[in-house]
Design goal:
By secondary structure, this protein is of the alpha+beta class. It contains 9 helices and 33 strands.
Amino acid sequence: MPERFLTFRVGGELYALPADQIAEVIRLPAVARVPQAPKGLLGLANLRGSVLPIASVRGLLGGEAEEEPAARAIVLEGAAPVALAVDAVDALVAVEADHIERRQTELAARPGERLKGAFAADGKSTIAKILDIGSLIGTAFVQEARARPRRVLDAAVAPQRETVADDRQMLVGFEVAGQEYALALDVVQEILDAPETLAALPASEALVLGVTPFRDTLLPLLSLRGLLGLTTRTQRGDREKIVVARIGGGLVGLLADRMRTIFPADGDRIEKVPPVLSARAGGEAKISAIYRGDDGRRLVSVLAPDQLFREDVMQRLKAGSGPNGGTASATDTQAASRSGEERQFLVFRLGDDEFGLPIEAVHEVARVPEQITRLPRTPKFLEGVVNLRGDVLPVVDQRRRFDMPALAEGSQRRLVVVRTERHKAGLIVDSVSEVLRCQADEIEPAPNLSNEPVRLVQGVVNLEKAGRMVLLLDPAELLTRAERGLLDTFQAKTERARL
């Protein structure tokens, strides 16, 4: 009985795989690259709601990166599927068993090839090599058993929870009409890019901008400028953000001019609003406290969520939060139906790729300081040190850390200050896009097609409807063992200098 093979091309060579090993052939989907992955792993992709590792056959064979991107992906059968990126798929052929050469194949194999046989694809001179794909994958990647990502991430951030002082409050800062305001982090559900278009509501107040899709429901969108009694913008800006907040039990979207930072506010720097201001009926009545940062040079107005809306609006929000009513009902019902706790992640971008860090591990987000002091004889990943509000902080350029090209001068990069069990460091990233909330059960484990350098990817949030995939990083794995040792030495020197 003849055997069936799928033939395909990679770098001008013709290869084959047994048809019974193949689940399907698809166009190469959008790929989320895994930092520092071996060249055989292109990254992760979404296949009908599941996270699928994409391996490059060219990379598995030891070749260099493709000059032109692969066009097709061959999805292999198995309990943990993997897709193979190839240049082109040729044909499905049937070959008689006695026409397959299996004994002398390895003698004709090129460096990097592992073969199970070969046959004449056209019956004459064109030879198709049968790849031993299991051996190639087993050699290129180390299969590792992994715990559920929420457990690993919980273990990674547990020390941070212990180090946060009781009187410190995490705030989300944003700008409205040139002034900085903030909401408590536990009020903010997510931070999203403002949509280009909104569905306006007829006969609504000026501060009600309309509704926008949010997960599986519609989110009412209101203008923070209108709520605070500030001047209305004549044109919308390209850096506007939606602060999704839970107020009165319901979800609302608050349109801010732009995001500022996520930062810890020490209790002794937060002051109640003076009575003369809190008694006024304007925007001042919506401010619960003033945070004095940077030795008083930075004043942030902390908003009181329960004072943002009139009493009748608050009553509607509370009524709408029940199991059968209003805006937040769909979201709440879904959350109640899922098991597991809710998790929060700070999402940042490097190029076109998105990464998430547990919010518990994030100390604050700030602009990259203009002055970074270089250190001699340090690895290229260490940009230098900065003085951030009196603390000398080592700064890691994540583009260099992940071997990515440098950004053009003048780009608005951000500094994400992260705490691990033993270190505190600043990570320079391209931008910070949002605070993402999801249920722990929505976090998919990272496929175990990996090796030691990519253990830092501990899970994946697959936002299929939005066409996005966020790779969740373990803060403790952002630095290699050698680099952690360097920071240990740096920290010891800093502490001795303080004595």
